[in-house]
Amino acid sequence: MNARAGRLEIRELVKHYGGDGPAAVAGIDLTIDPGEFITLLGPSGSGKTTTLNMIAGFVPPTSGSILLGGTDLTGLQPHKRGFGMVFQNYALFPHMSVFDNVAYPLRQRGKSKAEIRKLVLDIVERFGLAGLERRRPAQLSGGQQQRVALARALVFSPPVLLLDEPLGALDRKLRAQLQLELKKLHQEVGLTFVFVTHDQDEAMYLSDRIAVFDEGRIDGMGRPAELYDDPGTLFVANFLGEANTFAGRFADPRTYAWNDEKWRTGEGDHPAEAVLVVRPERTRVFAPGEVPPGWNSVGAIVTDVSRLGPTSRIDLAFPDGRAGAAVLPSTDAVQVRVGDDVRAAWDLPSQAFVTP
Amino acid sequence: MRRAPLLWIVVCSVAALLTVPTLFLIPMSLTGGSTFQFPPPSWSLRWYRNLVEDRGWRDAVMVSLQVAVLSTPMAVAIGTGAAFGLMRLGARLRLIGAGALSAPLVIPNILIALAIYGMFLQMGLSGTILGLVLGQTALAVPFVLIAVLARLQGYDRNLTAAALSLGATPATVFRTVTFPLVLPGIVAGGVFAFVASFDELVIALLLQSPRTVTLPVQMFNAVVEAADPTISAASTVLVVVVSAVILVAQIGWTRRSEKRSGSGA
Questions:
Q1: Domain containing B71: what range?
Q2: Which of A60, A268, B151, B214 qualifies as a cystine partner to B64, CB 3.0-4.6 A?
Q3: Does B25 map to a domain?
Q4: Is B9 helix (H, G, I), strand (E, B) or coil?
């Protein structure tokens, strides 16, 4: 399983299903380096799955192109692309044994019987499926089926592995376990992984880079931590985790005004029209008058305090009636009660400006 | 494993209700007398001998087999093709199409028979084997269509996508994935089509000529004219053939699945 691929390039990709509706995919540009784990993240209907299906060749794009290592694949039929793909429900062939499922892509490539046997038994062993070769998919657990699907998609050494919400159907515990396996697998095989999910935690955990989809466009793109700390747009801020958002305006380049509050802004440029966002875990709660100097703060009423173990969550109502939250170490949270009048505060590095 | 006794009683009662009247045929066909007296006064195979030696009965069995053997593959081909075609339509058109093709199930057979009779008379198909085959094919298509359509609706299209992504051409995908998974529906439809054709009476009655008397028509005529226990023997043959077809299909299928799951590496 060696990466022999070049970079995967997607240029101005558009898919319009006809009719008067908006484009399902409205112009996507994406360059994926060999060996990268990239996640297409977005709510349902955002165009992430359509994009994956265009890469796989199942959906013909209305315009735009897809290139692998400089070769244009756009018009190529799916069976000639040679990409591995894992489906949400695994799509294992129910009438074939594990062995025959994994051997399927090798048979299509006209490998000799001995070679097929060796390759299949090798990968089956590697995925911890040894001894199950004769079983049918229905006789396997969800986790085993998942591994068969991965083995089948990798056994022919594809340059790129496409994964369409492959963990979507699993319960939480198994899901966490398979996320770990998937991450290890990616590090071992060094293939390009294009992963589709609507689960932001999964995306943050697995990816080298995340492309956040909204209404057929990529709204934000970057390494998980960067994208989380500096989301760029309000949509990304809200989709990738939780955010306290304040839609005010710049009174002058160094002062942001919201409601009756005046806040300092950090160094650097900000978009002219901007929304201030602060993550709950970077929001602290103080009694009025105790806010540390140099911090920005806003009046709030505590609406709920819930202890989640090591952290506690304090739900807040801001003066404009909107809800927000602060997540604190539980040791700090005990002093706050429901109904308290408090100041929610944050230091300058904790705030970010995003476009609405 | 113990099951609820009440369930057993219900199951056995229903099974008895459905099969016992048919089972009475067998002793009656083995009677030595010439009436339908039960229990038979003596035992004999004379009515079976009559069935084989009497030209009318022998020919009727042959005609029925011939017609069923010809119309079954036609119904299978048309019904399967229609099912695949309907799957490519939108949900609404599919419903309309499936409804239209299943009409023979709902429309009284006598109406269909009259329509076919009128048309075939003009076309010179009345009284021919071809005419019988065509008429019974039309009646048998819905059985195949419904069985295959049910199978196709349960077919996960991701399987096709998966096979394509693994490098199989569309033709190979059909041969190795789609067709094997739909095959049970085709076989079941074929069995029903065969049975439907083999014991069909109304169309065969209207299209009959001296050369195209099917077994059900011969039985009908025998009852109308003068019933003797040959009809019990004929009925027994009919029941045995039909049951054998279904049983063989079922056993064959079970064997095949067992063998398949045992293979692999």
A1: 46-232+240-251
A2: B214
A3: no
A4: helix
B166/B203 Cα distance (integer angstroms): 50
Q: Classify residue B27: in a domain, yes or no.
A: no
Asked whether the CA dihedral A125, A127, A131, A137 is positive or negative, the reply is negative
Give the residue with greater pLDDT, A233 vs A259: A233
Residue found by looking up tokens 């439907």 in the block: B196
Of A222, A217, A212, nearest to A40 by C-alpha is A212
What torsion do the CA atoms of A321, A325, A331, A335 make, to the nearest 10 degrees? 0
Tell whether B181 is within 8 A of chain A (Cβ). Answer: yes
Interface of A with B (CB under 8 A): 56-58, 77-85, 87-89, 91-95, 97-100, 104-105, 108-109, 117, 133-134, 136, 152-153, 156, 162
B72 closest CA partner among B149, B114, B132, B150: B132
Number of folded domains in chain B?
1
What is the pLDDT tens value at each position of chain B, 265 positions in all?
566 889 999 999 999 998 888 888 888 888 888 877 778 888 888 888 888 888 888 888 889 999 999 999 999 999 999 999 999 888 889 999 999 988 888 899 899 999 999 999 898 888 888 999 999 999 999 999 999 999 999 899 899 999 999 999 999 999 999 999 999 999 999 999 998 888 888 889 888 888 888 988 988 888 888 777 888 888 888 888 888 888 888 887 777 666 554 443 3
List the Cα angle A356/A228/A254 in 5-degree steps.
Answer: 55
- Minimum distance, in Å, between the CA of residue A91 and any CA atom of chain B: 5
A169: closest CA of chain B, how far (Å): 15
Query: Alpha-carbon distance B235 to B22, whole Å?
Result: 9
DSSP A39-54: EEE--TTSSHHHHHHH
Q: What is the pLDDT of residue A3?
A: 42
Is B246 among the domain residues? yes
How far apart are the C-alpha atoms of A42 and A24, rounded to whole Å?
A: 13
Cα angle at A191 between A188 and A197, to 5 degrees?
Answer: 100
B180 touches chain A (CB under 8 A): yes
Within 8 A by CB and 6+ apart from A163, the residues are A85, A86, A182, A193, A194, A195, A196
Q: Report the side by side order of strands in the sheet with A255-258.
A: A249-252, A255-258, A261-264
Residue in chain A closest to B177 (alpha carbons) equals A93
Q: Which domains occur in chain A, in start order?
A: 8-235 (3.40.50.300), 242-354 (2.40.50.140)
- CATH value at residue B57: 1.10.3720.10
Instruction: State the complex-level ipTM.
Output: 0.82
In a domain? residue B111: yes
- Continuous H helices in chain B: 5-23, 25-29, 46-53, 55-87, 91-101, 103-106, 109-123, 129-153, 157-165, 170-173, 179-198, 202-206, 215-225, 230-262
Q: b/e string for A23-34 if b means 16 or more Cβ within 10 A?
A: bbbbebebebeb
